[in-house]
Backbone:
């Protein structure tokens, strides 16, 4: 059986990956070893003793190394393994090697053909994409496949979980801090003033987000770039084009916003179509592009029931709704989509890629 070394299995992405592998019985089809950067020698999953995630000797015994540990780890360990002529597969959730020319960004329901070709060509580095990009392509990959997309403008509503576990706790701490404002407060105007005062309080917890997120939002994700975009916004364009192998690239641009959702990202898209295509045809293309995408009729009840982070979190569903032609022209399509960013946005493409490599 294929020897697979897991690094980062207890982090957020790694935890979801382990849960999904257990659900699908994947671990029984491989020979897994578990590594840790901080607690080698202690007990890990399946009662195994954790190996040292910095031991190149141990790591180089693996046919596949699957890491959800982060970019610093990849940047440190991968070059050392290559210096030892290790020739296994490197499967990674971090962005460290995404744009490396010898790496493929994986999202097999969308780019399974690119992945198969890369394996045949001897490519050994496979990397999960940015969560928002993967979720967008799960939703509208069919429109790209039909060569219908001229450009896309994206406005995102990204959950706290995308920033990591500490940020999720901070969002809850901020909510708790504010929740006290509502007690015994019968007047909405003074409630508003109290919430504002509490957000400005010196003890209001903002150490991770650097700003209030509860009862507010943050229109900036990741570092800034010279051209005025944030890195998250830049990824939207370069990763999408790389995943699909588009030449020339399709322009993708917009504003990425952190909101107080907990686990699922949402996106409002404006899509400039290459030609006027009916909404009925677009719905068909979208819903037939993969088995997880669901078209939600553009009406209130179904939208509230099925097209929200609350409705989607913990599932693999990718609902697409609020779909209509815009009043600015027949080639302008708008839609809204939601997806669990720890599943399709992070762990699931990695889990499925392991299955492809071990088939
Ligand atoms: N969060 C997301 O939604 C998301 C989405 C797509 C991609 N990614 C990328 O995936 C990589 C991993 O992200 P992540 O959010 O999963 O990182 P994380 O939750 O911070 O976990 C990373 C590592 O931190 C260590 N750790 C230390 N204390 C821990 C504790 N109390 N509980 C759990 N782990 C602890 C663990 O390594 P040891 O066991 O070795 O100590 C763990 O594997 C990053 O490169 C990230 O950019 C994340």
Residues:
């Amino acid at each position: 059986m294929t020897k697979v070394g897991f690094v980062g299995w207890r982090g957020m992405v790694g935890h979801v990956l382990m849960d999904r592998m257990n659900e699908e019985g994947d671990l029984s089809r491989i020979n897994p070893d578990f590594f840790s950067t901080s607690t080698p020698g202690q007990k890990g999953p399946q009662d195994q003793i954790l190996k040292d995630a910095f031991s190149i000797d141990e790591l180089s015994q693996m046919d596949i190394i699957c890491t959800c540990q982060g970019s610093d780890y990849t940047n440190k360990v991968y070059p050392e393994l290559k210096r030892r002529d290790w020739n296994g597969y490197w499967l990674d959730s971090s962005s460290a090697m995404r744009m490396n020319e010898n790496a493929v960004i994986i999202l097999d329901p969308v780019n399974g053909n690119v992945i198969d070709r890369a394996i045949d060509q001897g490519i050994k580095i496979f990397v999960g994409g940015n969560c928002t990009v993967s979720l967008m392509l799960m939703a509208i990959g069919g429109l790209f496949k039909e060569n219908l997309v001229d450009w896309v403008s994206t406005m995102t509503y990204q959950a706290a979980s995308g920033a990591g576990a500490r940020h999720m706790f901070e969002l809850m701490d901020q909510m708790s801090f504010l929740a006290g404002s509502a007690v015994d407060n019968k007047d909405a105007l003074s409630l508003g003033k109290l919430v504002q005062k509490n957000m400005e309080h010196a003890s209001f917890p903002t150490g991770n987000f650097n700003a209030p997120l509860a009862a507010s939002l943050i229109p900036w994700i990741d570092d800034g770039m010279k051209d005025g975009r944030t890195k998250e916004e830049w990824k939207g364009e370069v990763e999408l084009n790389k995943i699909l192998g588009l030449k020339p690239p399709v322009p993708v641009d917009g504003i990425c916003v952190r909101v107080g959702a907990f686990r699922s990202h949402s996106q409002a898209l404006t899509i400039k179509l290459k030609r006027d295509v009916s909404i009925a045809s677009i719905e068909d293309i979208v819903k037939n592009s993969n088995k997880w995408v669901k078209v939600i009729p553009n009406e209130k009840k179904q939208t509230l029931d099925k097209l929200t982070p609350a409705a989607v979190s913990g599932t693999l569903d990718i609902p697409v709704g609020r779909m209509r032609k815009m009043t600015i022209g027949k080639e302008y399509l708008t839609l809204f989509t939601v997806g669990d960013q720890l599943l399709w946005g992070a762990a699931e493409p990695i889990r499925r890629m392991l299955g492809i490599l071990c088939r």
Summary: Residues 319 and 330 are 23 Å apart (CA to CA). The first helix runs from residue 12 to 24. The mean pLDDT is 96. The chain has two domains: 3-129+347-357, 133-159+218-341.
